[in-house]
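Hi L.,

You mentioned the student needs an example of a multi-chain input paired with its predicted structure. This one should do, with 760 residues in total across all chains.
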Amino acid sequence: MFNQSSIGGFGGTPTPSSANPMKDFEVTQPPDDSISSLAFSPATLPQNFLIAASWDNNVRCWEIEQTGKSVPKSMQACGGPVLDVCWSDDGTKVFMAGCDKQAKAWDLGSNQVIQVAQHDAPIKTCHWIKASNYSCLMTGSWDKTLKFWDTRTPNPMMSINLPERCYCADVDYPMAVVGTAGRQIIVYQLDGKPQQYKVLDSPLKYQHRCVAIFRDKKKSPTGYALGSVEGRVAIQYVNPANPKDNFTFKCHRSNGAPNGYQDIYAVNDIAFHPVHGTLATVGSDGSFSFWDKDARTKLKSSDLMEQPITRCAFNSNGQIFAYAVSYDWSKGHEFYNSTKKNYIFLRSCYDELKPRTSS
Amino acid sequence: MGRKKKKMSKPWCWYCNREFEDEKILIQHQKAKHFKCHICHKKLYTGPGLSIHCMQVHKETIDKVPNSLPNRTNIEIEIYGMEGIPAADLREHERQRLGSVSGTVSGSDDEDEPASKRAKPEGLLGNAPGVMPGMPGMMSGMIPPPGMPPGLPMMAMGPMGPQFMHPGEFSMHMMPPHMAMMQTQGGPAKPLFPSAIPTSSPGASIVGADFKPISSATISAPPTTNTPSSSDGNKVNTIATTGATSKIIHPAEDISLEEIRCRQPKYARSIPAKSEESASSSSTAASDLANAVSAAQQAAAQAKQAEAINQAAMMQRFPVRVSGPPITMALPGGPVMAPMRPTMIPGPPTLIGGHLMRPPPISMPPEYYYRMIGVPPGMVYGAHMFPAGPMLTPMMQPRFR
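Structure written out for the whole complex:
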């Protein structure tokens, strides 16, 4: 059904099939440098907007139509490479954080940008928290702090010291989880006010790279999936009913190279499907995989892209899976080719992520 | 049993008829080629062991020993090195080796066999020659425990089953295994890691194409040398990227890829923040986006109200030079905006595709401008590429159908 290799381009050169092995919809006018973050608009907006942050200092916005067509809408510049973006819960604003040590709020209605957060080092993560009695932006930085901003005052509502630099974080109210350098994991509870809930030993032996919160059957956050640079994901419950509920699995590894070595790649991003609760992982190997953590099975794995997949995202109703193909620095600067085109692909994914039926 | 044949025969693998210099290498060969689980690459110790492992761990039935000759696929025979090879096959192998000296030799060998150890006919064993070692209980006693390190089979064997070994044949069993390997096996290059030896054992060249040389997964998590970095962060930790059979594709320094990338001069020069400038310069760029979003804003009128207050507060603190539209946007009224954006028609349905009718945003970068200009207004881009109905549904949520 989706066998067109080139969707967008607006008359540009067609995408070679090797760049799009899964024959997915290509987002038009992709960023000029690696894509560092992807985020779909929340369900409060009737349309699907996709926001992508890039190392070219810009944040771009497209409208994604039901046909799979992407329409560039707007672009906003920051003072340095942008490392993370997120939406406000009402879909009116996008928050952008990055190497300029600032986080900014981009009001899409007025197209205004205002600074809302400041750190002493680049900000690696930003997440919008919508609680019953407050709403704020949470920023995690390499300055070893986690700060909470109400976006109206120049000082943070709260600042929490981290044991190490923040490498990854996720928020699903009332839970937040932060993975840091030195393989530490801290879980926060956000109701009332943010406070540390638990510091956990890492189940992984290598550097943390990405984390995503998952929910239980009653749709409340109950645990998280943590990815490391050593091609491995840990599924961890915050309060496991049974220690055996926690487990790790390997992913994003080569199938035994001719030289006898197996190449192990970083897990760059993890996203949970908003409806099915299954998950997607993307890796430096240039593939994405879909998994059912409850059945502990792989649902699908993609062919290899030409470059690593840096980030991925599901849209609010779980119909669209977006993934960004661009260089992630995993082989160092020698392998960086700035002339290589970056891609964002869109895949109709709803059925592919249906959990394995227990027979 | 095998030990009495030592004087005239090199150890050989029953499964693939290959000869080896040393039974240790034979055993490593068998573990790597014939007793390795194709799912998790765990090396088992016998055919039945593999079969039970696959059944219990992976719920899969293995009916043939991997990489075996067509008439030697029987998985139920318990063979470990030279131990357990059916007597008839031992005789046949010997006979073929010695050529013409056949009938009498094998007959006499048969007589040498103690009666209690003589092979018993086993009708159920498929295409195996119909015999089985008469000592399954003793054989199982020889099987090293599963937790044994793969690189050290003989070390563990030594104390466990000396009564089954010929003293001469295993005289080197106290040596480190790789040392023994080097002495007895001249051919392949010496691996740096003992654990890599099984993959480079002589059997490697004869396996079928389907048996990939993945030794890897058994050591997929090489021991890490990096400890959690101290909180002062001054030490530069490294990642053990290269294991015995695997390589982690990551710079050796144990800091995030983004931190490494940030050091590049290209990214390091951080432009001083000019939020005012960026806000005003591209204030019209997102006008059509603003239209779309405004619909949602109206829907979320309540939130919008608070938004307006927020915005007012923010503007007070951060003096932002705002040109016309943004201020009106702050008001919760759609009609105010309409005159400024003639093409805007509130409401989601008309917004889909409506962008094509709008003039290109003036402050967009040139390539955006030209590309958008280049599209004829009437061209419904999707129409050619996506013939109507079916194409819409997959990406579409039910309410749009």
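You could point out the following to them. Chain B is about 35% helix and 0% strand. Residues 100-234, 272-286, 312-401 of chain B have pLDDT under 50 and may be disordered.

Best wishes,
N.
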